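User:
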Amino acid sequence: MSPRPLVIAHRGASGHRPEHGEAAYRLAIELGADAIEPDIVPTRDGVLVLRHENEISGTTNVSDHPEFADRRTTKQIEGKEVAGWFTEDFTWAELATLTVRERLPHLRPLSAAHDGEGGIQRLSDLLRLLDDAPREVGLVAEVKHAQHFEALGLPLDELVAAELAEHGWADDSRLTVESFEQTVLWQLRERGVGGSLVWLVEKAGSAADQVARLGSAAPTYAEQLDETSLTALVEAGLHGVSFDKAMLLHPSGETRPELVDRAHAVGLDVFAWTLRIENAFLAKGNRQAGGKEAEGDWESEFADLMALGLDGVFADHPERAVAVRAAL
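Assistant: Predicted structure:
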């Protein structure tokens, strides 16, 4: 049996190397992560690439490429106006000319020192890397903006299912698929994708698929977390829920166990995102001197969250989470 909670490298070892780069993925394996979490978005020609968002100006050098200057645009993504360059406006051959860079250089200058070291990874690249790993490492694949891409003729359920099947991962025990949108999870299951299905839960707002279907009548995330609603999700085939850690912590740093206990009571696994070491991301009660980029009392925050009985945690520095888990 794997130790609990599982330590999932959030976009690879993204506290050390630019997120979703090959170096971040390889380092996550070296540092002891139990699984790696990629975010999946498509190119114009249907290739699945690994970027936190389909807007890539903050995580690649696309703005340094004059040949792509005319691709800069503004779009509505899940009700928000976003300006920049978007994966769906590029072919894979074009994206393959870019290099990755640190998204938070002001907070993580040591990672930013590795800007330009490697290019954008595809889902197929990560699947091969995991298959070649010296030990078993899982995949926690986040399907991003499925409703948005469906409207563009890029159905992620179809594309992801086909890619997983091609590489022998469609029913692999190492596989977990997660999304903020329940619809794409059910669609993937209908297409034969096995593994665990996990619903990502925001602190506020409503999921894009439910807004598209129900408009202003769409339930918020919070309105779907009562025992009856969670039980219905289990009956529909859901295996887990993944909470923003802010939902599990008071500003003081004191934990709030009720959501974890309620989800466990109906048979769901419970995950929390994202464990980070910098003051900028810690509960106010766990911040220390030195500014936003300085390390705060991350040990206490990690340990307190793990003590809730979580089944998995997402961490930018996986080795820190592994060390805290070992000390529990």
